[in-house]
Structures are given as C-alpha cells and as structure tokens.
Amino acid sequence: MALKLIINSSSPPLGVLLTVEHVKNSVSVSVEDGKDTNLHISDSVQFSDVNSITRYLARVAPSLGLYGANLLEQTEVDHWLEFSARLYQRSLAPALAQLNNALCLRTFLVGQSLTLADLSVWAALKDSSSLQSLLSVEGTTPHVKRWFSFLSSQGPFKAVAEKCGTPRAAPRNGGQSSEKRADVGKFVELPGAELGKVVVRFPPEASGYLHIGHAKAALLNQHYQVNFKGKLIMRFDDTNPEKEKEDFEKVILEDVALLQIKPDQFTYTSDHFPRIMGLAEQLLKEGRAYIDDTPPEQMKQEREQRQESHNRSNTVERNLELWEEMKAGTELGQRCCMRAKIDMNSNNGCLRDPTLYRCKNTPHPRTGSTYKVYPTYDFACPIVDSVEGVTHALRTTEYHDRDEQFYWVIESLGLRRPYIWEYARLNLNNTLLSKRKLTWFVDQGLVDGWDDPRFPTVRGVLRRGMTVEGLKQFIAAQGGSRSVVNMEWDKIWAFNKKVIDPVAPRYTALLKDDVVTISIPEAPEEVKDAPKHPKNAEVGMKPVWYGPQVLVEGADAETFTEGETVTFINWGNIIITSINRDSSGKVQSLSGRLDLENRDYKKTTKITWLASTPRALPTPTICITYQHLITKPVLGKDDDFKDYINRNSKVEERMLGDPCLKDLKKGDIIQLQRRGYYICDQPYEPISPFSCKESPCVLLYIPDGHTKDMPTAGSKDKSKSQAPSKAVKVESACPAKAPPKVSSPTAPPSGSGDVAGLLSRVAAQGETVRKLKTEKAPKDQVDAAVKELLALKAQFKQLTGQDYKPGMAPPSPAPAQSNPAPQKSTPAPSQPSSTPEVQALFAEVSQQGELVRRLKAEKASKDQVDGAVKSLLDLKSRYRTLTGEEYRPAGTPPAQDKKKKEKENKSEKQQSGAGAGGGGGGRKQGGGGGKEPPQDQEKNAGSGGAGGGEGPKKQTRLGLEAKKEENLADWYSQVITKAELIEYYDVSGCYVLRPWSYSIWETIQEFFDGEIKKLGVENCYFPMFVSQAALEKEKSHIADFAPEVAWVTRSGKTELAEPIAVRPTSETVMYPAYAKWVQSHRDLPIKLNQWCNVVRWEFKHPQPFLRTREFLWQEGHTAFATKQEAEVEVLQILELYARVYEELMAIPVVKGKKTEKEKFAGGDYTTTVEAFISASGRAIQGATSHHLGQNFSRMFEIVFEDPRQPGEKQFAYQNSWGLTTRTIGVLAMVHGDNRGLVLPPRVACLQVIIIPCGITASLPDSEREALLSRCAQYLERLTRCGLRARCDTRDNYSPGWKFNHWELKGVPVRVEVGPRDVKLCQCVAVRRDTGEKITVPDAEAEPRLTQLLDDIQKNLYSRASEDLRKHMVAVDNMEDFQKELDQGKIVQIPFCGGIECEDWIKKTTAKDQDLEPGAPSMGAKSLCIPFQPLRQLSSGQQCVSGKEPAQYYTLFGRSY
Predict the structure, then answer these.
(1) Which of 1121, 1062, 1114, 1119 is closest to 1089 using CA atoms?
(2) Residue 670: beta bridge partners?
(3) Residue 1436 — left, alpha, or beta (φ > 0 → left; ψ -120 to 50 → alpha)?
(4) If we measure between CA atoms, which residue out of 201, 268, 195, 184 comes closest to residue 419?
(5) Percent helix, strand and coil across the chain, each rounded to 5?
(6) Rounded to whole angstroms, how far apart are CA atoms 673 and 681?
(7) Higher pLDDT, 755 or 276
(8) Is residue 340 within 8 Å of 289, Cβ to Cβ?
(9) Could you give the CA distance from residue 4 to residue 36 in angstroms, rounded to a whole number?
(10) Hey, is 1152 helix, strand or coil?
(11) Which of 133, 145, 157 is nearest to 15 (CA)?
(12) Are residues 550 and 544 in contact, defined by beta-carbon separation less than 8 angstroms?
C-alpha cells in the first residue's frame, strides 16, 4: 500500500520526517511539499495531526518496534508524544529538567531501543532555538545533551537535519537569544485556538511613528502567530484620508522590521472599500442604519442625553437619497453621516447610534478621489476582520465598550464572528503616547525628531539603547494581562539590562575637566590584553595601556589618603605615597608605587583610570543623559501636558574615553565602568581634512532600572568631598526668541538672604545662554555666557551645599564647616526666581495671606474674612497656573519633603526623654536601657509612680509604618506579620499560621463544632487525594475548579500511570462512599463534617487569609431523603455562620442567596453571608451553604428505596457548606486600626494582658516583690474566673515597648500595675478598642474586667454595624448605582437575575485606570439577593439595565 505524505514546506514536521526515514524500507511513502501537513491513506481516511501520523506509520511497520514492545511501553511512548506536542506551551527550563531526569540512566526514552518517543522529543528540541540555547548553557541537563548528541550523529537524524536547515527563530547575534524563558508562559491561551488555524492582525494607522504601545500590540500578535503556527496579517487602517501619509507607512514597515516581526500578509482597509460600502447600503435598505444631517455638537449632546435624532425615522428612500448626496460629496452630503440604528437608551454610549460613514472630499493616498465617503474604524474593522479570516482580534481594554458595537456589526451583516481577546494597554509614567501630542513636540522643535531618545517611539527607545530582545522580554512579562496599571520606565529598562549586561564590553571614561594625574615612576609604558567582559570570555579582549603617568577621576582622588592601597581595575594594587594639594585644598597631583604582588582586593577602593601616553591618546567623548519630557507621572483628564514639560531634559558631559572607544560603531552597546551602560549614537571620526576637527564619540546613557542617580563615577565616601560634576552643556527644550544679552559676572553672595537672589541670577543666566544658542550667537559670546553660568552655579553650590536644579525652592545656606555643632538654619524665602511677573504675583499672594491672618486675629466679620480668603485662593490658583507649582510661603519646605519631615518630627518625639505620671516610665526593668516602642513617651507611662525619662531611646520598627486609610495593602501586610498572625513561606501562596491566628481558628472551630453536633452532624476525615475519574464525574462542578486543581504526577523519579488531584473540595471524594453506605431510607440522613485543608492553585495574586493556595476549612456534606429536610438544614447552617461572624467576631453580615451566575457550580442554589470592609469599599464572601439538590446524587448514584413506592429508587437530596480561615483576614481588616489588630474578646487568644510598671533601678526590692506578687495574684484570679489572661514579666523590655507590642497584637484589655497602684489597692485597665483608661479597685477586678470585655465586644459590633449601615444603600438607576459604588459603597439595585445582564453590569462599572487614574479598576459583581432588602420592588419596576423586569433587589459591589 503506497502512502502519500504532504508536508508544510514552511514549517516541516521533523518528527514525521524522522519516522518516514525509519520506515521507508518497510513501507512505501511518497513525500511532497504543500501548504498543510497531511497523510493521505485513502479518500475516506486522512490524518493531519503530527502525532497521529507518526503513530500510524509506526503501526504499519510493527517489526521496527517504534511504538513500543508492549502495552506499558506504548503508554510511555504516548506520554512522550504528548510531552513533545505541549513543549511550546510550557516553561522550558522545568521541561528540560524533567527530560534530563528521565534520561539519567537511559540511552533511549522508552525501553532498550529507539521509539517514537525519541523521534518526537528530538524533533521538538531541534525545531526550537529557545531549547537549543538552553541546551548550550554549560553545566545544565548533561543527560539531555548526551542523548541529543548521540541521536544527532545517527544517519536518519543527520538526513532530516540537513533537509530542514536550522531551528526556527535563531538568535539574532552572538550574544542575544531571540527567545528566552521570559518569553514563555506569561500569556493566556486564546479561547478556541487550534494549532495552525489561528489568524491575528496588527492594524496600525499610518499617521505617525510606532510607539512602545504599538510594539506591545505587534509583539503580542506575533507571539500567538508563532506559538500557534498561525498567520499574522499586518493591515494599514487607512479609513481617514486626512491623517494618512505614505511616508508614515514606510516608516511603520521599517519599525516592524526593527522589531523582527515578519507578517504573513500585508493588507489595507481600503482594499475592501467597495465591499464595505455595499454592506453599508445593505443596512440602509434593511432599516438598520440612517443618514443624519444633525450638526456634530448637537449630535453629541443628543447622544449624551439619550435623545433620538429627528432623522432616525427617515424612510429608506430618504436615507438612500441622502446617501447618494454623501457619495457625490455635495454640500448637503458633507453635512451628513451614516449612523447605525441600535439603541439610544443604552447605558453603553457606544451603542447610541454610532457613526458608520462620513463624507470627506480629501483625496485618499491610495484610492485618490474615487470615494467621497469613508467608513469609520469601528464599522470597517469587524467587517475586514471577518473577511480576511481573522480568528482572534486582540484589542486593548480601552475598546471594551466598543465590543458590543463590533459584534452588532457582525451579526447585523451575517458575517463570520471573530473572537475579541482583550489585553491591557501599556501605560508608562511621565510619558505621552498620543500621536497628536507627540507630533506637537516634533512640530515645536522641542525634540530632535520622531527618533529622539526621550520619545516613547520604537525608534526612540531603540536609539536610546533598548534591545529588541529586552523589549520582547518586557512584553512577555506583561503577557495578555488585562490589569490596567501605570508602570515606571525602570521596569522595562531592568529587562533590557538582563539582555545587555552579559554581552556589553567594559570600557573606561573620565570627566575631562576633573582628572588628576598620578605619577608611578617604576611603571613601564606597555600594552597588554585584558578581557572586555569579566564574566564572558566570548566578548573578546581589548588592549589596555600602562605607564608612569596615569589619569584618575578628581572625585576619586579626593578620597585617597597617603599610604592607602587602591585597586586600579585591570591592573592591580597601587600604594598612594603622596598627595599634592593647592591652596584651596583641592588635589592637584598624586604619587604612588606599584604593589602588584599584593592580591588582597577585599577592602580596597576600586577605581577606573587611563594611562596618559602619546602612544594611546584618550578618545574625546560626550556622554548624554536624558530625563523625562513630562515632569508629572500621571496626567489627569484636566491636566494640560504643556504645563508639565521638562525644559532641561538633556545633559551632556565631556569625557576622556578609553582609546578603544575609537573603534565603536553606531548602535554598539558598552558599559563604562562605574558609570553605567551606554549606546554609541555617533562614532568617533578622526580629524577631517575639511573642518580640521575631529568628531567626538557620542554615547547615550542607557537606564538600567535602578532608581538611584546614574550615571556616577565616585567611590567610597565620595559624598564627603566630591566636587560637583561639571555639566558642559545643559540644553533647554524651549527655544527662545528674545535678543541675546550677556550679563556681567557677579560677586558671590555671602549671606542667607542672598540665596534667593543668587537662585534668580542662575535662572536668568541659564535663560540668557538658551537665548544665545537659539539665536546662534557667536561662539565666543556663548562660551562667555556658559562660563558665567558655571561660575554662578559653583557659587550656589558653595553657599548652599546643593547642586542647582531648575525650578527648585531656595534652600538654606550650608552651615559653616568650622562649626561642628549642629545649627538650625532659617529657611530662605520660597520666592520664585524666574520672571518679574511671577515674583510680583508671589508678593501679592504673600500680602493677601498676611491680610487673612490679620483679619482672623482681629476677629473681623465672617463676610470680611470669607472675601479675603476667596481672593487668596484666586491668587494661589493664578500662581499655580503661571508656574506649574503650588504656592509655598517663605521658609516652607518643598511639598515632596512633607512626609520626610513628618517622619523626622515623629522621630524627634520618640527620642524626647520626657515622661510623666504613671507607674512605668520608659526605663528598662531592672535598670539599663531597654528596647523602646516607636510611640510618644506618654504611652510608655504606667498608672502610678514616677516617670522615667532617660533621654533618647533605641528605635525599633515594632509599630506599623503604613496607615490603613492611605495604603490598605501595605497596612494589611504589616498587621498580619507584625501581629504574628502569619509567617511567609517559600512556596508562593502558602503561609505559616502562627499560634496567635490558629487560636482564633480554634475558637471558631470549638463554637461551630459544638453547634453542628447539636444538629446531629458527626466529624470524619476523608483522604486529600482524588482520582482523575472521580474528579471529572461532575463536569459542571469540576469546570469551575479545573484551573485551580493541583496534580501529583510523579512518585520519586517515576511518572504515575494516572495523575492524582489534591482536593480543591471534597464532593467527589466523599460521595462515592455515600453511594455505598446508602441503601434504604433508613440509612438517611447522613450528616458528616470534616475539618481539613484544601488546595486551590490560584493563579491570581495571593493574599494571606483572603486568597491562598492552601487553606483550612470545615466542609459539611449531608444527604437527606426529602428536599424539605435538606432546605431546612441549609438555613440552619447559614444562621450558624452568621453567628460566627456576629457573635464571635463582632462583624455584621448580610444574609442572602447567590444569583444564578455566582452560585456553587453543580448546585441548585447557594446561600451566603457577606461581610463588608469599608477601608477598601469592597465586600467579601464570609461563608456559604449550598443546596445541591439531586445533581450529585445522580452522578454518584446515591439512591435509596422509596418507602412510599416499594421497588422504586429515589435519589438523595444533598447539601454542602463551608467556612474557611478567610475569616481571620476579614477580622483583621474590619476591626484593625493604625496601631494594629483589634481582637473581639470572644475570639482573642488572650483577653487580658497584665503589665507591671515602674520597676526601676531605684525601686526597693520589697516594693518590686510586692508589685510582681500583686500581678501574679491578678493572673490567678482572672484565670480562675474563666478569663484568658497572661502576665508579661519579661525584664528585657520596657513597659512602653510591651504596651505597643500587645496593642499591635490586639489584646482587648491591658491591665497596668505600678508601685502606687499596689499601695492604693487598684489597677488601671486600658481598652484596646477606644484607648480609654479605667481605674479598677482591687476587690472588683473580676466582675469589672468581665463586664469590660462584654462592653468591648458590643462596641466593636455596634461600630462595625454602623459602618455597614452607612455604606449599604439602595438605588434604582444605573447613574446613582455608579455614583454610590465609586464612593466605596455596596448597593442594592433592582435586578432581573440574568447572567448576561450581570456580565454587562460588571463591564459597565469597571474603570479604566488610564482615563481615571486611581479609580478601582474592577467592576461590581452580585454579592447576594438579601433575605431582608432595604426596600421592596414596586409594581412593574424594571431592572437597572432598563431591559427586563426586575425580579428582586440584589446587593452588588466590588469584592475580594
């Protein structure tokens, strides 16, 4: 039988070809090139799957044993075939490690001979450059390398390798691999995607250069093209002839090539203009569209107000008549547009009759004047996507509201439906991505062009040193995420550093105007080779010159001392023998001697240097550092970007470079040691015969993701004496038109009052320099102005101790060096220094502020004060508009230092030694200085005895450093760790529950366990492992858990025959046993509960207690003979859950029923208790009780004989219910405050903490013993009466430290006992919830403290209930719903109950972080249908969507 094999010539299946090579002597197979791989056996039997083809070929040649010698080997072969097929979808390094382990003691993967397993896995490795590069790493996967090399040497493997060439996606150049692990495993799989059938598209508009946001879109599309072996269409969206430019098309194609993207097809939207026009006319004729001549502004208002256009009711004939006017481009036609007739009452503005066509007389770059009408992008895109065969349309989330419009077009025209896959757009801080705004920068001459290194264009970032590989890795790290966030540029540069660091050669450069010569007489003048890269020999060698005269940085020289040993990089140790200084103390020259035999470099200063020799002159070099063009990280909707332009974003420094820099080519990336990474923007050119000048090597600084100031070249302790780096040229981005004017040099100011004046002169001189350069003044005039500017800056530095920065507030003068005592300098007035207009306005604001203060001091009438305040605010607003900064009175520090100042003030308070009253004081017990809490000293005082202020105390980080209201995430993280609830673990998403949290769980367990036993529930335990067959029995149930199931696949090094799941829940574990146990109605009910752990391998960001991969819970599973019994229990258990929250944890909950969308998968309905966390404005599911009906009993055949109908089988009715350790997280977030946990007494591990105070070194031993004895008595008495109490007698901590410690841990009551309290027979009780101090007589301690704990429990519940009451409201329309939701509330709304409607509500209420920075991005979801709603539905009331009748009020909100 002759077989016909057609292979895809562009992507040949190596595994199939290898199999053919091995069976060709046994089976007749003809091989032909074609488009798709296919094995033709007969007209009715064909195979296109690679593994199916190889299996068939192996089976028709059984004597070769390629498919294994027995059933076990065949099963192993199938495993490896599946392994090779999924290799591209896995993280590569772990997959190779698995393969390496399997080959540890084997020559072949299966059995003792070659099989399909070897062929398929070898083919997968051979076909991927990523795997090839991983295999090339020394010391990794030795067994895979051995096996791969052995097979590659065999004849059939050689033949296939020669025919099919090199692996796909080979590395671009020697050092940079085009695929790395970071490119893999970060992307969500496309729904419904099939290998070889995916078609994606990248549709840029030819109206500007590609920017980094476009690069993300292009690379995402390429990723899916490559990984699914699909097709990428690059389509120019040329629907707007007014914006299209052919020049931009050429540029975009070049940018795509720079990104190493190779589309399979190039198209234009204009290719489809005739078809699009025909489909538009079809809509007109069907009455689905109409022609509208409403003026644009009026149309906009009508759409906002949901008013229909007067043309909406036009007849078809009238619409066609106006359409002809549009097509002809007449005056009437130009006033018209075609609009879709969708829904003017829609909550989605994109569905309010959007425009489909508009009339434009502008000639089109490709079609000329053929058309006068052009489709909108939103109309053309779905049509062209469908026509061109796009299977998956990747769009950013900003298009989310337009998705319904996209599908409306598809469905209305009866076209094939592509799948829209959303991902988050790339938002970078301090960056504009709008083409309109970037064009403005170019047109204004503020940048060098579209490839300016400050621009976010592809050309700009590549010119600045971004590599395509770094960009790919960054995009891969973002993957298909839909989370809309603003990112710092340091993240993308950090990825780039990983690419360039291993291959960037190291060179040296010194500041030209700040070099010092060191004389080393015994050093011979010579040249030696040194490695360009200390860790990568493949980078090569470079010549390094040595000699008796060496140049070093002046900043380094200032740090040297005579006799110090300094390590000269690439040379060795040199001892500094003498230092020569001028009259001002500045180092002029150095002398040294070689100490090369000394190879101890551990504690020496390492410096860079250059030999001063005429045989190897330094390369003249200019290093350029760029800053952000926009000074504000995130611009708001009302911000004008022109108010936040950085006018000094480019700084140049003249350097003496390594002689090797003469050989750099444009685009070469290097590292200047101790300065950073640079890219060669302009190579060095020797002296030109025409200009008689040499051109320096121009290097652009490449950020590396560090937030520290870079580049720098100092060394240890340089801050002590480093001279300022002299910037040769600070280039303004703002061209000036005023005539040049050079001011005369000015004497240096001498007092603090001169700081503002000097600041003003520096700014004015800087403006003069900019004007001179703009006007292209003579060089000597410019040089003189620059020289004066540098002199003024030096004076400023000398006076203030700070470098001048444009726009800075006047600093205080630097303290005199001769006076070592710290002095408080009076801040200079914050007077502006730019223009007379600003200075005059500053003075006005200051005077008006003084007037307001005087009126208030004199208690003037309210009208007078209000009028003055209003004038002051107006003046401040004008000042902000004019300067771009907030007004600050004289002496006020800059706004950005406010938090720092607060910390300093707090630190001063902490260190103040005053403490009054109380019995504790701040001294360590037993004398000596103890650890002190980071709180005010007054908190360290006890209740009786003298204070113990002993001066500054040792600072600790015991307390919380984040505030709950400012940064809830940081606050929560600190609370749960510092209060000792959890400890982090080395498996992500898993945490150690420490005794303090586990005791809370034990209290909950004890209460709930006792209550369910009253209902007849018994405890049991079932295994944690689930077979695959059992888990998959209930399809809808497991579908909900499938992404979270963790699987055990190996025992030691042996693969399991069948993977075993770790339980995500136990229905499928327990119900097979129920089926065995239940035979008749007498075996019912079964009421079992187990306290256990479960594993749900969440892929979202884990949060301790709230969302973890492993957690503790109880899960009850009951079975009943009747539905009535089961439904009664559902509500009984729900009531118990409500009691756990309300009676134990003092947290009010809302009881209700889940909607159809949110119910438990596989159940009939779900009831729930929902809690609310006001700090985040989000709800959280507290516990659920599910009625499963007969769904699971049918699947697992839990049947019994119906006593009413003998012989008839009846399925059992089942419930399941669960409560988890999430409760502890809810407890912390609801009650906690900025001092730590606040524990309700009923769940507190410790209800009372007793702290002895006032034990000082001077306290007599008798009083000390009496005090400790009294504390022990209190402990015994409180314990005896049933309170959980402890006495903290640790003598290595002060009372103040203990107060903070136990407050942080949330102990409800603190009892303080001091020497005076012992004498007065009393103690002081301090409430954790309010901080109130109560004096308690000794005799009343037990009843008073017991009552106090009850009061605290009630107060916490009352406080939380009031909080819930304020934050839960009922509204009837979408506008009010959105408003209340955005105020952090949960809202009851009329709801129809539909799943699609719920999805729509979630989408509609989601926020775009780019449009509304800081807004919560998640949409609202249904929480429950409350059993007791805030209001009842009125007759005929509609759902909030306005489409269906409402069924009930449903609680919606953002949730965890």
Answers:
(1) 1114
(2) 678
(3) left
(4) 201
(5) 40, 20, 40
(6) 18
(7) 276
(8) yes
(9) 13
(10) strand
(11) 157
(12) no
Torsion 445-446-451-455 (CA) sign: negative
* Residue recorded with tokens 């007489």: 521
Phi-psi region of 387 (alpha: psi -120 to 50; beta: other; left: phi over 0): alpha
Residue 750 pLDDT exceeds 60: no
Closest to 289 measured CA to CA, from 357, 360, 376, 384: 357
Bridge-based pairing of strands 605-607 and 669-672 is unpaired
Question: CA-CA distances (angstroms) from residue 92 to 77, 88, 89, 96, 155?
Answer: 20, 8, 9, 6, 28
941 pLDDT exceeds 70?
Answer: no
Question: Residue 1175 in contact with residue 964, Cβ under 8 Å?
Answer: yes
Cβ-contact 506, 533 below 8 angstroms: yes
Tokens describing residue 387: 């026509």
In this structure, how many other beta carbons lie within 10 angstroms of the beta carbon of residue 1043? Answer: 11
The residue assigned the tokens 């795509």 is 256
Two tokens at 917? 């009253």
pLDDT (0 to 100) of residue 1148: 97
Rounded to whole angstroms, the Cα distance separating 1253 from 566 reads 55
Alpha-carbon gap, residue 336 to 320, rounded angstroms: 12
1441 in Cβ contact with 1449 (< 8 Å):
no
| 932 pLDDT above the threshold of 60 | no
- Tell me the torsion sign for CA atoms 183, 188, 194, 199: negative
Spatial distance between the Cα atoms of 1272 and 1280, rounded to a whole number of angstroms: 12
In sequence order, what E strands does 196-310 have?
199-202, 231-236, 265-268, 289-292
Encoding tokens for residue 460?
């700009």
Q: What angle, rounded to 10 degrees, do the helices at 155-164 and 142-152 form? A: 90
Gap between the Cα atoms of 853 and 73, Å rounded: 92
Distance of CA 1424 to the CA centre of its chain: 31
Residue 1156 CB contacts under 8 Å (≥ 6 apart), including other chains: 1393, 1395
Query: Whole-angstrom Cα distance, residue 301 to residue 310?
Result: 14
Residue type, 964: K
Alpha carbon 1441 to its chain centroid, in Å, reads: 33
pLDDT for the residue 787 = 82
Count other C-beta atoms under 10 Å from residue 473's C-beta.
Answer: 22
Predicted local distance difference test score (pLDDT) of residue 745? 39
Q: Encoding tokens for residue 513?
A: 């105007």
Q: Lowest mean pLDDT of 52-61, 113-122, 485-494, name the range.
A: 485-494
Task: Give the residue carrying structure tokens 């979630």.
Answer: 1402
DSSP state of 92: H
Whether the CB-CB separation of 22 and 64 falls below 8 Å is answered with yes
Q: What is the pLDDT of residues 491-508, one digit of tens each?
A: 888 889 989 999 999 999
Taking Cα atoms as reference points, which of 163, 235, 179 lies closest to residue 12? 163
Report the SS3 class of residue 211.
Answer: strand
Handedness of CA 375, 378, 384, 386 (dihedral sign): negative
Per residue in 1398-1452, pLDDT tens? 999 998 888 643 333 344 557 899 999 999 999 999 998 999 988 899 999 999 9
- Taking residue 505's Cβ as centre, other Cβ atoms within 10 Å add up to 19
Nearest CA-CA partner of 283 in 233, 241, 342: 342
In angstroms, rounded to a whole number, what is the distance separating the alpha carbons of residues 293 and 818? 81
Q: By three-state DSSP, how is residue 278 classified?
A: helix
Cβ-contact 1178, 1103 below 8 angstroms:
no
Looking at residue 995, what is its pLDDT?
95
Distance between CA atoms of 980 and 1305, rounded to whole angstroms?
7
Structure tokens at 605: 């200063």
CA distance 297 to 333: 17
Q: How many CB atoms lie within 10 A of CB 1127?
A: 18
Query: CA dist 732 to 446, 623, 736, Å?
Result: 8, 17, 10
pLDDT of residue 692: 73
Q: Is the pLDDT of residue 880 over 50?
A: yes
889 preceded by a cis bond (ω within 30 of 0): no
